[in-house]
Amino acid sequence: MNITVKKLQIRTKKSVELINITPEINEIIYNLKVKNGFVLIYTKHTTTALIINENEDRLLSDIKETLLRIVPKGAGYKHDQIDNNAHSHIIASLIGNSLCIPIINGSMDLGTWQSILFIELDGPRTRTITVQTYSE
Amino acid sequence: MNITVKKLQIRTKKSVELINITPEINEIIYNLKVKNGFVLIYTKHTTTALIINENEDRLLSDIKETLLRIVPKGAGYKHDQIDNNAHSHIIASLIGNSLCIPIINGSMDLGTWQSILFIELDGPRTRTITVQTYSE
Amino acid sequence: MNITVKKLQIRTKKSVELINITPEINEIIYNLKVKNGFVLIYTKHTTTALIINENEDRLLSDIKETLLRIVPKGAGYKHDQIDNNAHSHIIASLIGNSLCIPIINGSMDLGTWQSILFIELDGPRTRTITVQTYSE
Fold first, then answer.
1. Residue range B123-133, pLDDT digits in tens
2. Which residues 69-128 of chain C have a CB within 8 Å of chain A?
3. How many structural domains are present in chain B?
4. Residue span of the structural domain in which A43 resides
5. Interface ipTM
6. How far is CA B71 from CA A116, B87, B120, in A?
7. CA-CA distance, B132 to A11, in Å (whole number)?
């Protein structure tokens, strides 16, 4: 088995923001010439998350607004007495901080409308994502 | 390391529906004679999801109704101006589109009440699931 | 490829509870001398879940209360006619029952504030978690 690891740094610009990182992950896999296997994408923060969905601006706005409707900022959380970002932690917990994506014949097996979206929930900040590939 | 890949096609029948795909995944693992490792199950769509839970009819109905209560259809989403399924995308993002399940001694390490459930959120459609196994 | 598997047993004490299992997972990886690869942590139950977030008491309380606000106990679920825990199953489905974490240079690649948290949703019970490692 061949394992590789790369670190991806992202500079986010807003407090809550969805960022398409598919090109960066594609480039890593292309440069490593991974043929068959999977990629494990892992964000090292407790107020960020990762999803796979459609990279369409109005949808990204809907996702953001729906997350903040379900878990609103400043809704009497106890953790806000320490740091005013309990909602960011809770949303990150609901969504998850890692993705596993098959790689087949040199490319991620993404469907037509699938993009890899990084979710900043307490920005702007510099964020680090670990990208591991596993192949034969 | 031994990697295998299979494509599973599902024809869904309703707009929102939970479908038990455990038998199909069991059959793939059995036929491939995978002994120890894991299976990565990955749906290639942005309006479907995968969970592991109990395959009990009343519970499946509760899960469906709760998802649509938390993220209702047509609740003023901007993406609905393009395609009337923003809620499907948002629910799919919340739940996730892949599962990793250990395989031990030739079988998935599912607990007594665990089944693999495919969630259609914008059907009926024909859907494709990628099933990769990794073993020694 | 080297695959190992361990079973971790946890005795939970409350109906809903978040428990930090990072020390137990660290110990498994340390004892196995896994150098580079990943760990797959998998809970075998339909009323438990796993997240990675900050192990801070007030935040854990906020997460618990928010989950029960989004999916309240006894809110007219059909499954409650069989077993009074539909909300536990639904929350478990929303969050997910497994984690994949990179291992780099002998340690999990957890960020500064990241802990592995087991979520009991229908306790107290004895719970089993499967811990598999994959390395070169």
1. 999 999 999 99
2. 70, 94-96, 99-102, 104, 109-111, 113-114
3. 1
4. 2-135
5. 0.98
6. 21, 6, 15
7. 33
